[in-house]
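Structure first, sequence second, as always.
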């Protein structure tokens, strides 16, 4: 027996549900990537704005919903660290998206599924 014959055939409804799940997962990942890219742009703008300022200058930062007074010297390194973390997360999510998209394509080919355009 070949491995293909060992696998149970999915019904049309099960295939539709699985395809919808793949689509929803891809949309969720893409949405999160978009959200993080907006945060990354905001971080870049704030870093660009604060970089030429004197390190002793007061600034305010929102931490867990509480506005706290800090100096540029204290805030700028934290912003740069956060920016790096966001960038790494975007890279990981992009890799995850590509992997899930490839998996979905293989699923479509294996089950002879074509997604109809709206």
């Amino acid at each position: 027996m070949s491995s293909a014959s060992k696998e149970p055939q999915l019904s049309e409804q099960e295939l539709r549900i699985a395809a919808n799940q793949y689509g929803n997962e891809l949309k969720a990942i893409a949405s999160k990537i978009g959200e993080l890219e907006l945060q990354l742009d905001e971080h870049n703008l704030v870093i660009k704005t604060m970089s030429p300022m004197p390190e002793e200058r007061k600034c305010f930062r929102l931490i867990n919903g509480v506005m706290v007074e800090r100096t540029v010297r204290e805030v700028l390194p934290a912003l740069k660290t956060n920016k790096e973390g966001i960038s790494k997360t975007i890279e990981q999510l992009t890799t995850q998206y590509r992997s899930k998209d490839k998996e979905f394509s293989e699923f479509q080919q294996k089950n002879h599924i074509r997604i109809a355009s709206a």
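Margin note: Helices lie at 3-6, 12-50, 72-110.
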